[in-house]
Amino acid sequence: MPKNPNVKKVMVIGSGPIVIGQAAEFDYAGTQACRSLKEEGIEVVLVNSNPATIMTDKDIADRVYIEPLTVKVLEQLIEKEKPDSILPTLGGQAGLNLGMELEESGFLAAHNVTLLGTTAATIKKAEDRQEFKDTMEKIGEPCAASKVVENIEDGVEFVKQIGYPVVLRPAYTLGGSGGGIAHNQIELEEILANGLRLSRVGQVLVERCIAGWKEIEYEVMRDSAGNCITVCNMENIDPVGVHTGDSIVVAPSQTLGDKEYQMLRSSALNIISELEITGGCNVQFALHPTSFEYCVIEVNPRVSRSSALASKATGYPIAKVAAKIALGYTLDEIKNSITGKTYASFEPTLDYCVVKLPRLPFDKFITAKRTLTTQMKATGEVMSICTNFEGALMKAIRSLEQHVDCLLSYDFSELSAEELKERLKIVDDQRIYVIAEALRKGVDYETIHEITMIDVWFIDKLAILVEMEDALKKGPLTTELLKEAKRIEFPDNVISRLTGIPESEIKQMRYDNGIVAAFKMVDTCAAEFEASTPYYYSCFGSENEAVETGGRKKVLVLGSGPIRIGQGIEFDYCSVHATWAFSKAGYETIIINNNPETVSTDFDIADKLYFEPLTPEDVENIVRLEKPDGAVVQFGGQTAIKLTESLMKMGVPILGTKAEDVDAAEDRELFDRILEQTQIPRAAGGTVYTAQEAKAVANRLGYPVLVRPSYVLGGQGMQIAINDQEIEEFMEIINRIAQDHPILVDKYLQGKEIEVDAVCDGTDILIPGIMEHIERTGVHSGDSISVYPAHTIDRKVKEKIAEYTRRLAKALHVKGLINIQFIAIGEDVYVIEVNPRSSRTVPYISKVTGIPIVDLATEVILGKTIRELGYEPGLQKEADYVAIKMPVFSFEKIRGAEISLGPEMKSTGECLGIAKTFQEALYKAFLGAGVDLPKFKQMIITVKDADKGEAIEIGRRFEKLGYTIYATRSTAAALRDAGVKARKVNKIQQESPTVMDLILGHKIDLVIDTPTQGRDKSRDGFLIRRTAIETGVNCLTSLDTARALVTSLENAQSGDLTLIDIAGL
Amino acid sequence: MKAFLILEDGTVFEGTHIGADKEIISEIVFNTSMAGYLEVLTDPSYAGQAVCMTYPLIGNYGVCSEDMESRRPWPDGFIVRELSRIPSNFRCDKTIQQFLTENGVPGIAGIDTRALTKILREKGTMNGMITTNAEYVLDEVLPKLKAYTTGKVVEKVTCAQKYEVKGSESLADNGPISGSAVYTGEKEQKPTLVRALNGKGKKVALLDLGTKYNIADSLSKRGIDVTVYPAHTSAQEILDDKPDGIMLSIGPGDPKECTEIIREIKKLYDSDVPIFAICLGHQLMALATGADTYKMKYGHRGGNHPVKDLKTGRVYISSQNHGYVVDMDQLDPSVAVPAFVNVNDGTCEGLSYTGKNIFTVQYHPEACPGPQDSGYLFDRFIEMMEVGKNA
User: Fold this and answer.
1) What are the angstrom distances between the C-alpha of A491 and each of A387, A512, A541, A596, A651?
2) Full-model pTM
């Protein structure tokens, strides 16, 4: 069927801020879909509150609205833009839910807007637990015994019939939010209560527990004519019980015979046909390990994280095809862009093995429980490709950038075989390392399988890796052994560690014997057809297919690896823009990255894509083949920066700011010299290695002090210490991982935090704008509300900041981007830190100022000057509207994580509020972050003594808004003394009703809880904050944030918001 | 032990020996299915060929003997990148290594199967030798390779005597759904899932040119009584048994070698008994009625090719295994018209015979290995027999 001629203007709904369960994959999907729509001449209106995305670029969509994703905003936008259709299936669950609400309310029909792709009835059939179950029953597809309940009593009653354990899944939530497995009534009631609250429709599915079954997924496509195909299937190594987003996943399935494979494939096609899905869809199955019994777990009637993974694993562009299907095309009319010879109705077949590992945030939340459940916790993921499973796993492990490179990276050698068997019962992110140790200790496959339910085929593969460790340890390192070690992707440094032979000698031995990486193409068809897609992976012992191309100058763009807290999608934005800019300048571009969720790993972004780990050895393999004329590291976050030295050793020139200048910004002594020379003040401080030295420096400076490792991103490990004891604690935590660089101890200064991104051409600088943080220093910049233009500092201070920026950029010989954070105290400006590279705020400031700074930085790197690019150097004129960036957290997903803000970054994403006035922008920013108040007009305040003065003013303002304020004893007293009506409520350990009961009563809008200085030791505060977060109550730990919120509420308009098309700016 | 794969063009791959200890010369082909290696090995269509699996990890679930599609493996040799060290499946009764050795099939592992596939893709299917003799002399080997032909292989693979497969007594044994959604092609009508039709009481004659078990099983599951005949059974003998329908099975080799069978098939064509033919059967029917076949550069072998049913416009993912194809340009529309085409290369995937209750397909609705999407063709055959009966 050809394109539907009635579709001319489509509104695409994005997925909003990055949270756990909804990450960069939707930027990838949305971007691909928008490009695909534009290709068809469709006018695209894009709405997404997330400014760090590529999809919100003006060259991706015709009209771009970075607005809060609420029904009200979308309705207003539809009235304004009058699209004829909306496409809700590419914006994750958030986008889908919004589309459904608009449809259900009749708004779309009233405005003659069509839902493209899958219909609302279908979405309902797939998403509504009962309807789904009924549908499956109708076509004879089995589901686990289950019942949808809307209250706890019904749940308990049902489980009495089917028995424990049971799985609980709330309807319409992200990443299994609020779900879990209950083994008894206490757990059931707890999880159920939480799940009912989190579900948009107050429904939770109580289901027979099929934990331990194989979890298999199929990615399916269907068009409006009913043609359907499976793009690929995937097998979770972790059996049912661990969310697929947290599982180790392999594609294609490894332990299914054709009978099982086709049985589930047919089932998936039957399901998608019965549901009449048009577009992409993900079907999850549980397969009994010793029979053909299976259950359909769930269906996602939309593009999902798994579909991004399937796209990258096979080369099949699911989002692009889904967009074309939405326009009316059928699968046999859409060309496969990889081969150009086959059609989208062709099923990809792989001739390699793909492994995905989750990137879990336990390095950030050290107090959090590491156990993996049906609630997703991963912030991102890595994927790797190899011709064997062992190699793919090894490559994925070292792609994680979590100080792991082999199965010995977590040391369990102290545990006995018996202890290991106990330890294996714990399902967490270290399980494969525990299995490896159990194998070393001689525990047999069957025992490990019985405890973990992981298929013995995978256990045997882990055993092969363990045997190789042994063989290498024993030696001697023969050519044959080395060949085999490389075949299963042991990196040289691990071989070196195990054999005791220096890495350089191993490398030489490899070269001498021709043991070098070869590159193979991902072509969707196992080489059956010729493909021209420049999408490669490496393996050893094979013929090389990647050809070194000549002619144009060649640049290597290093990607930023997995999405993690502190290094998010922003860096992918920068990498992609840099790639495009280099391409425009006539360069051949090569991207290396390992993150399947991103736009940068789409095969048509760069001239060549190498899907590889970002380690020196892996990068060198590519460099040896491609011999690039230069590499650019300043756009790929810390991941890329860390490779600078290695690249230079390989003889690859670093384009832009030189490595020694990057060092100068990080190295305390060198940087102090630069500051002296440029006469810029900073907080006094020193560098240390031990706790002893740290205490000495801290006492010299006087507490509080800031303690942090150098060369890290997102303030990892950064803490404010108020006494010697805390110094000891923090130093111990930092030094758990061997530090290559010294630790910094600085005097903590309290003031306004200011942030600047600038482009420097070596002489002149261009500052698009100055951003000011709402929270005072001490809260990580990534977790602070950031306001552009800076609104509380005067012109003189701004000029000083611009001047300091210029001096620093020049002194560091910056060519390209630089990011600087300052503290302003009155008229004084101190520098906090300088990063001669792209930063988190680059996409945000680019979008709100309309100055494409990544493109400019790229041009500058290539030798152009700022003037030549048509810009007047210096601080640019301020925009006549306000843009406020609001951090968004995923605390509810990470059980046990401390939520209070501090110098270590904790947010997973961000959204933007953009408006003519500060107040409206602030209101929009909060709204975009999901803070939609007031609801019950009841709040709790409990603050530390030092904050009581400020709390009074905030309390008074909330009171004026009609809020009932509850407060713990001393806070209540302080508020009352100042004339603010506050109801006293008991602390947790006092008699009921306590503050906890209040929160659990579901009638509280907001909790303001400021923790005592430093790391909060009181279980009370921690518990209050956790409970608030887990029951969906907004919880603020900084009075600055609270003040901003009350300001926004005071100015909350009852009428319409002003919607701004940033593409038109 | 080292093993070598020597190709007709002089390329030599060095790997590890697997399976039986013998040297073979055969036609080298590749199959792109990611699962179903046992079904591939026991598919008689591979007689006279050595098959290379493009998926690199083979043997993961061992051998589940009940999944065999004929009495033994047929390929002369088996070529893989990596054989799993252990098998893992609840039904597995032996390893693939054991299976190959027991059945006298030699093979080679540890070679770059993708590189081999690319050679075959670019230069076309060619002959090769698998040997463990490191002292081979290329100049002596290559002429032997060039001289090799698969010859008449149908004789090798067909059954010795006729036998019966009884129709399933209770259709409750069936899955409730035939395995695919059927779309009628009419715009307003929604695609619906159909139940497999009940063919109870019908008798089908299956001419075994190298059949897979699942052809008879697909009929038997629908309640049909199947009689399987050796390839050289005369048309008269089959017609004398008064079948309600005739199926011509799949099979190996160059269809043009089967001259006598073609003659008999012409008689079946003339008989007016409804006929459904698959793969080799489809090619022989075409040759019997004046059409032509030719050898493809490297054939279609895998489980992912899209086939369009021209009757409904719907596209199905198919299981494929053929090196020859019917030439669509040589069709006489008064005899047969294209009914199915390959979406990728436009080659003939099936014919409908004008004025006859005959339709034939090039691909494999019996699946095993591969997608079960085209199982509905067996239902179409049942419908055709109903029409034939009423007529």
Assistant:
1) 16, 17, 15, 22, 21
2) 0.93
